[in-house]
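Protein: Fumarate hydratase class I
Species: Succinivibrio dextrinosolvens
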Amino acid sequence: MTTLIKTADFIESVCDAIQYISYYHPRDFLKAMKHAYDIELNPSAKNAIAQILVNSKMCAIGKRPLCQDTGAVTCFVKIGMDVRFEGDMTVQEMVDEGTRRAYCYETNPLRKSILTDPLGKRINTKDNTPTVVHIEMVHGDKVEVAIASKGGGSENKTHMRMLNPSDSVVDYVLSEIPHMGAGWCPPGIIGIGVGGTPEKSAILAKEALNDPIDIQELIARGPKNAEEELRLELYDKINKLGIGAQGLGGITTVLDVKVKTYPCHAVSKATTIIPNCAATRHIDFVLDGSGPAEFVPPSLDDYPDIEIGGADANVKRVNLDTITKEEIASWKMGETLLLSGTILTGRDAAHKRVADLIKEGKPLPDGVDFHKKFIYYVGPVPAVGDEVVGPAGPTTSTRMDKFVETMLADTGLYGMIGKSERGPEAIASIKKHKAAYLMATGGAAYLVSKAIKAAKVLAFEDLGMEAIREYKVVDMPVTVAVDSQGNSIHHIGPQEWSKKIAEIKFKYI
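Structure follows.
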């Protein structure tokens, strides 16, 4: 018997699913993160995990995005052979319409990051469409949908290689993970696709990220096949690299490793690695013709009761409006700061415009003065209600590395705030100018936004989320990631913790 799926039901389900995953973490992720928190020995990494978990509960209560990068939508649709769709919209069109409604939702608008004309003008489509849709025809009379909203920071850390049949997948993965840095916001999940053709291995890896976190259950019962053996070996060896939460060094780098395989050519072994960040936005649903999918909110009891820092936390309060180079010189790598005062914002596009103006000998826009200021690499979610800003977590800092010398040398900037590591060029410039790079926690966007008490656009309003803004902040939590002497916690932390983990001598974390 043929099942009729109404267009309105499909579109509504996609919209509701995207909204749901924007503010609710999966229960398995919460459980895995609590385990990571409990076993973490590095105070900086433990604090980062705590911020992610506290942020998660805040988002569940406030129904606001877990991360300011609300992602690009990928949708896997399995259509039963006995299914018929009402109307004349294609599956791509229905997914796009559901996405459009979700990202333009009045009470929880999501950040639109999709650009058209990628080789040319790169113009924002303003509704986060088009999406990427993978369609498969299967037996049955239902439609199965797996949908994810994945941020650019983790997506950009994808690696793919055509391995020889005799090459080791373990060796390849372990060679690439350290080069991913912290821009993918660990701890998270690593998806690995092996086999098929190049594009098939990438799809396998992306699809694997939708599978439940169950590594602890696998450890308890033991592997049953080659895929599970690979998962266990990589889970153990990746965590022993000591990269840790946010790349600060620590016990847990990955919460799980997921593997999918497909038959391949005799002379090939296509392998793709895709990490999933701490936002981990995905959900599955089934349509059987009875109406739109229903999504049951998790219980607040599913969220661990965790306090960030506490009375004994070693933190230093900083007034950015009276900051001096002497005070910056006193900061030590790994130290926790609570920032209050004025900061400016700017990302790739704003930095490019500023650099071009400086190169041409032209003045900066009226009101833009970086002298003795810190710049925050952020592209916030639109504000709603009485919010000053929407979720406003940091973006990957390495994209701005090539602008650091210009900003520090020619604008009087004192430092930067972002996420993940800095490259050698940026670190050398920071050391040269006795500046500092501070790291906010990726995956704690709503938590960070609550420290922002006032905001206004100063320049480049046409850039939308990438405009230069002025923020007034109170007790914004950050970690000193690169101090004025050029010491980088993202370089030193993992080295120290890989040695400590080796001394602990446990098999699985």
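Remarks: Residues 43-62 form the longest helix (20 residues).
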